[in-house]
Design a protein that fits this description.
49% helix, Rossmann fold, alpha/beta, 6 strands, 6-stranded parallel sheet
């Protein structure tokens, strides 16, 4: 089970201290979680799906960390396909190392109001604010409007770009050390 915001946990439930070796932390929005369920006949959607599934495998293999939030769980619960919602919720609950909970809602919504001034919609702004609060390195999304948002606090990226540009850097970190 994920710990709220700044706390992380090992599989054996022993708390770990922050070390000088930084593990990359990603936050996936619901567009990314649901990409594998979209029509795969378009090449870009198929590639985004494959890249997103690679990210999930890396999370499961503890190569990168997953940050999540109450917004992720809320939006997942709104999914009309209950079996899909259950699968995504289970992944979030089992794999998150950091979770931004409802007790942070006021601070998240204040930050979201600031983000919304750039044209981002409320729920998307909340996802960005949650990812920032979780200290994620990347917010992975397939939402084109969200991808236009720029900040020094977090990098918004689509799964293909993460896989082709950033993942190579991440996977190569341990090889030369």
């Amino acid at each position: 089970m994920a710990k709220d915001v700044k706390t992380t946990e090992k599989n054996d439930n022993e708390f770990k201290e922050e070390t000088s070796l930084k593990v990359v932390k990603v936050y996936l929005d619901n567009c990314a979680y649901n990409r594998p369920y979209d029509d795969q006949s378009q090449a870009k959607i198929e590639l985004e799906t494959q890249a997103k599934l690679k990210i999930q495998r890396m999370i499961k293999n503890h190569q990168i960390e997953l940050a999540s939030s109450y917004m992720s769980l809320y939006e997942c619960g709104e999914n009309p396909d209950k079996s899909r919602a259950e699968l995504i919720t289970a992944f979030i609950n089992q794999q998150s190392s950091v979770h931004v909970s409802m007790k942070n809602k006021v601070a998240i919504e204040e930050k979201a109001q600031e983000i919304m001034k750039t044209g981002i919609k409320f729920k998307d702004a909340c996802h960005i604010a949650c990812a920032i609060m979780a200290k994620a390195d990347y917010l992975v999304t397939t939402d084109h409007r969200m991808l236009k948002y720029r900040t020094d606090e977090i990098k918004l990226i689509n799964p293909i770009e993460f896989f082709t540009n950033e993942l190579e850097k991440i996977e190569g970190k341990g090889e030369n050390e």
